[in-house]
Every structure is written in C-alpha cells, then in structure tokens.
C-alpha cells in the first residue's frame, strides 16, 4: 500500500499504517491512486523492446548476414513476402559498419531499390536508422529541418533528408504516443 522515502532512499514499504510511523509534519504524502511503484529497476540500456520485436524484424546482424549486399538481397525477399504497404523493418547492429564487407550502412536509394513500394527502416542498433523514401514520407520527415521531433535528421546539400536519422524513436512506426507528446 505505501512506501516511505527520505533523501532519495526507500526507508520502508508496507501497509499505510506501518509506513505512517516514518512521517512527521514536514512529510509530503503523495496518493498514487492505485498505481504501482516499482522501485529498484535499473535501466541497464538493454533495449528489451527491440529483442521482443526481433521476432518480426529481418535480422541483419553481422553474425548472420556477412555483407550489405546479402542484407539487401534478404530485404528484397522479405518485401516480396510482406503484404503490400506494410512496413519492413531490418534490425542491424551498430557494429555492422565494422564487420560488413562494405564497411557502411545502406543508403536510402539502396533500400528503395531492394523493396520498391514498401516503407523500410534499417535499424543500425537502437540509436540510428536509415529510412527509404516511402518511410520518410510516411513518417512525415520534413525537407530542410535537421532537428525534428527531438531526432537528428541528416540532410544532403539541397536540404533533402538522406534517410539517416539519429535518435529517431519518435518517428518509429510502432510508437504509440499521443501527438502532443512528440
């Protein structure tokens, strides 16, 4: 029912009656209205949501896909087996650029060519993605704006998005946040 906190540390948990013994006249009482407090969880930067979703993503980690060329072939095969218009998401690894034969990420144009008619996101680990042209359109990525929705969009000399987005989770098609939070 309750917990007592002092100086950022949990002193006690238990019933309201038990925890009230830690209160004095300066105590701030917060009614959580039945919500749950989960003390002790530490985000160790594991990105479990990606591990859970990996069951539906194309796995392009360098340990299973040796090169960018092979990834693009697999992307093309995945797109052909995907219902028209559905997203195709490729889960790579930030280390792919080190271990892929080509030593780089795919380009927007390469993703366009491999999966025409499909919005494609290539996840280079959890912090950088490469989107193809249709994905950029569906995500409403704007021409000429380097910072959008808290993400960093790489632009070419003309101001067009190259497809590379850093910290782009607010653009992610599976994100279900209200627009006013973005």
Structural class: alpha+beta
| Overall average residue pLDDT | 87
> Whole-number radius of gyration?
22 Å
Proportion of β residues? 15-25%
Euclidean distance between termini CA atoms? 34 Å
Shape: elongated
Low-confidence parts lasting 5 or more residues at pLDDT below 50?
Answer: none
Task: Fill in the keyword field for this structure.
182 residues; alpha+beta; 6 helices; elongated
Please provide a brief summary of the model.
By secondary structure, this protein is of the alpha+beta class.
What does this structure look like?
The protein is an alpha+beta fold and about 180 residues long. It is about 20% helix and about 20% strand. It contains 6 helices and 9 strands, in the order ββααβαβααββαβββ. The protein has helices at about 15-20, 50-55, 70-80, 95-100, 110-115, 135-140; strands at about 1-5, 10-15, 60, 90, 120-125, 130, 145-150, 150-155, 160-165. The strands form 2 sheets. Strands 3-4-5-6-9-8-7 form a 7-stranded mixed β-sheet. A two-stranded antiparallel sheet has the order 1-2. A hairpin with a 2-residue loop joins strand 7 (about 145-150) and strand 8 (about 150-155). Helix 3 (about 70-80) packs across helix 5 (about 110-115). The two termini are about 35 Å apart. The model has no long low-confidence stretch (mean pLDDT about 85).
